[in-house]
Amino acid sequence: MEPHTAVRLRERKANRLKNYIAMSRPLGVTHLLLLSKTELGPNMRIIRSPHGPTLYFRIKTYSLCKDIIKTQKNPRSPGSEFLMPPLLILNNFISGKKELPHETLLTSTFRNLFPEISVKKTQTSYIKRTLLLHRDPCKGYIDLRHYAIITKNVDICQPIRRISTNLGIKKPLPNLGFIKDISEYVLHNTGFMSCESDSEIDDDAIVEVKEETNMKNYSKEKVQKKAIKLVELGPRLRLELYKITEGASEGNVLFHKSITNTLNEETSFKEEH
User: Fold this and answer.
1) Checking CA distances to 110, which of 30, 201, 235, 264 falls within 20 to 30 Å?
2) pLDDT tens per residue, range 190-204
3) For the chain, what is the radius of gyration of the CA atoms?
């Protein structure tokens, strides 16, 4: 959820939910995420601060970040990715007249968790992460995945890229002392990755990116070909929405999975939200 989180909030054991709701407005907090565990399993609540509504989820399955790292051959340590909000991707979320009232509220809640990103104004270098929410159309389960977006230039081959990218950062340059000519490093596989190995990159992962470069007297758009790779950061969640209440963890029940509302109740719920 970073960077738009209350990192300066001091938690105490004596604090209750009403204390956090009271402090949400001075801190600029719009949503509260609460995790709890019962005999039936773990649960999660998303509260719209300060007056609700509240969405209740059952966590069917989950994997922590440390569990995801153990399964990766080359895990990525978090860095500057968390200085910018993630790109939210909603898949299989119904929109339009076929959408039920509780589905409309569910979609708007997830969208309001993160700031809007303008496709025309936002630079591609600003987007470092993506949060994917996939909804199962049959069972209604929501699968959450969190990825880091890694981009690499493909206009130049891998050996040249290793030299050019290591000049401005504190990384050692490759040892070229045992070769007689630079062509042996670029064209042949002499202990390094050759240019031919770049062909292993999937064509579907290569996109053209327009980047604005500000010059002294004018701005210029530079088109580059970049390979995009997603590296999972975790956690993984499978959620099931089972209840919605009108207030902050209280109030009238607007939706319940085990209870079917009448037509009048659904109409009034749609008018209120």
Assistant:
1) 264
2) 444 445 444 455 555
3) 24
